[in-house]
Structures are given as C-alpha cells and as structure tokens.
Design a protein that fits this description.
The structure holds two protein chains of two kinds. Chain A is about 0% helix and about 50% strand. Classes of the chains: A mainly beta, B mainly beta. At the A-B interface, strand 5 and strand 10 of A face strand 5, strand 6 and strand 10 of B.
C-alpha cells in the first residue's frame, strides 16, 4: 500500500495564478483532510471531507476550494494564489469518522511570489 | 475551545540522555490524545496514543500517560538516539473532526 500520496512535491506560483493539489489514499478511508503547516503555528485545518460526497470548512478555508472526487481522492484548489498561501500543505485520511488517528501524506511545499 | 500547549523548542540532547517534552491541554468532554512525529522532509506519523484518563501509550521506547487531573500528556524516552531527531507534535482529538495540534517541538540529538 502506498498510503497517502500527494502531487506535486514542490510548486512555485506567481501571485494570481491558480493550481490544484492532488491527494489520494488507498486505505479505503472514509474521511480526508487538508492542512497547512507554517513555522511556529503547528498544523491548521483548511477543509475536510467526513465521507464521500461531503466537504466542510476547517479553521482557515479562505482562498481555497476542495473537491472530493471519489472515496480515494480529495483535491485542494487555489483559485488566485497569494503570498500568504506560501506554506507546506499536507493531506491526511482517517478510517472512521470521529476516531482521530490520521495518516498523512508527504506534503507539498508551495511558494507564491 | 480546545487548545494544546507544548514546550518551546528546540530541545538539544546528547545521545542516551533522558527526554521529556511537556504537553498540556484544555478541552471539554473526554478527548483522545496523540503524539505524532515528523522527520525532516516527511509527513507526520502517529507515534502513540491514549484514549482515556490514566491510559499509557507507548511505542519505539517512547511513553506518554494521559493525566486528567493535571491535563497533561508528556512525552518521555529513557535514552534518545540520533535517529530520534525530529519534530514532535502533541495532538488532541475532541470528537467529530475537532483535531487540535500543538505547535511542535523540535528535538535534536547529538552524538
């Protein structure tokens, strides 16, 4: 099993450009999450999907959109990138809604100039 | 709301030293508590967990006990190795997607 995979690993964007971060899991998990990691701030939840067909806002959703394409895939889109979105983005999944134990992908390092 | 407070890093130790990373929390109800580890350039990995008061989680020589009376979940290891160098996150799960991460504590172990 590959676990949770993310693409791309690195990306540089100019202000105003758009892009989609891809995430897939092969563990048949119901719930999936997108986080951003900034120095000194831990991880902050952007959006989550408790189950296929549902998505909900997390702590810092502004400037992002998500799509739960199917049970395996959960994408994060930046419509108009801003320098404040420079961060490392992690996708995660969990087996059962409400259990807490999450499995993380390797991350995408995004720089917006 | 829920919160997690971790000791500031970085923590620098010599190999075979004793490690403690403090973690305290505030939460309503009966949260579960986790320690995750992040090695350089990688995602977070679950290190250990405890789901109720007085539970002790353990893995790879690391231990943490869920103390409801002191609202703490301190991470300990008796003898650290260079390979333990990483960032450690204390995480609280308060039910239905309410996950709260600490800010992380960087551990550097020198030979």
């Amino acid at each position: 099993n590959a676990g949770v995979t993310q693409t791309p690993k690195f990306q540089v964007l100019k202000t105003g450009q758009s892009m989609t971060l891809q995430c897939a899991q092969d563990m048949n998990h119901n719930s999936m999450y997108w986080y951003r990691q900034d120095p000194g701030m831990g991880l902050r939840l952007i959006y989550y999907s408790a189950s296929e067909g549902t998505t909900d806002k997390g702590e810092v959703p502004n400037g992002y959109n998500v799509s739960r394409l199917n049970k395996r895939e959960f994408s994060l889109r930046l419509e108009s990138a801003a320098p404040s979105q420079t961060s490392v983005y992690f996708c995660a999944s969990s087996e059962v809604r409400g259990r807490g134990e999450q499995y993380f992908g390797p991350g995408t390092r995004l720089t917006v100039t | 709301g829920n919160s997690v407070t971790q000791m500031e890093g970085p923590v620098t130790l010599s190999e075979e030293a004793f490690l403690t990373i403090n973690c305290t929390y505030t939460a309503t109800g009966y949260p579960s508590l986790f320690w995750y580890v992040q090695y350089p350039g990688e995602g977070l990995q679950l290190l250990l967990k405890a789901t109720k008061a007085d539970d002790k989680g353990s893995n790879k020589g690391f231990e943490a006990t869920y103390r409801k009376e002191t609202t703490s979940f301190h991470l300990e290891k008796g003898s650290v190795q260079v390979s333990d160098s990483a960032v450690y996150f204390c995480v609280l799960f308060g039910g239905y997607q309410k996950v709260t991460f600490g800010t992380g504590t960087k551990l550097q172990v020198i030979p």
